[in-house]
């Protein structure tokens, strides 16, 4: 159907087909969600497939918005071309284009029928390929690379992986000599991995929105608690991170800190 939309001879026909695709897309999503999931893997595949369909519908909807905005007045010009003294010539010309197109692509329409859509939740190599073996299809975190990065930081102890799992989320006990530029890079890598893991294991969750809400909440609390303690907090910050090692505030800003 998207190919049909792209090659259709009129803007109005493209809009009609886009509306049809939205309706059929919703039907496919309903079929997917109605499919019973018996295992963790099936549920994960279901959510990823639903997300893929939703993203496709968002693109189609965006095209429709552009169509109705009609900033270049192309749709309006097409409507005007359907009237006047040449109305019959215009009509039969478009009818010929449609017939020629259907003769060229006789089976294109049927491929998008909701009735023929199979909501399969069988093993999907593309989806499962997003996870490492250690993540076990999203059941567990794979912090092995981050563990190696952590124990190779200046000033850290060579703790076991098991011990690292107990401390990786606790930043309060990290001594000053460890909080260098490399440490800040490690923290950013840890954050990026955890965000990626949540997005891969909960594909229908709006993770970016949650992060924005957390950041806004943090900023509000920071403003509330700053007040007269701002100077003292600056001193605490300087005591916590070695600015000389970092090379200045510019590098902190580049790391998002």
Shape: elongated
What structural category characterises the helix and strand content? mainly alpha
Tally of domains = 2
Please identify the oligomeric state.
single chain
Instruction: Enumerate how many helices there are, as a single number.
Output: 13
Strand content: under 5%
pLDDT < 50 runs, ≥5 residues: 1-7
**Head-to-tail CA distance between termini:** 46 Å
Report on this model:
With 257 residues, the chain is mainly alpha-helical. The chain has two domains: 2-125, no CATH class; 144-254, no CATH class. It contains 13 helices and no strands. It has helices at 2-7, 11-34, 40-69, 74-81, 87-104, 125-128, 144-151, 161-167, 181-201, 207-226, 230-240, 243-246, 249-254. Helix 2 packs antiparallel against helix 3 (40-69). It starts with a helix and ends with a helix.
Descriptive terms for the model:
SF3A3_dom, nucleus, SF3A3 domain-containing protein, SF3a60_bindingd, mainly alpha, RNA binding, 13 helices, 257 residues
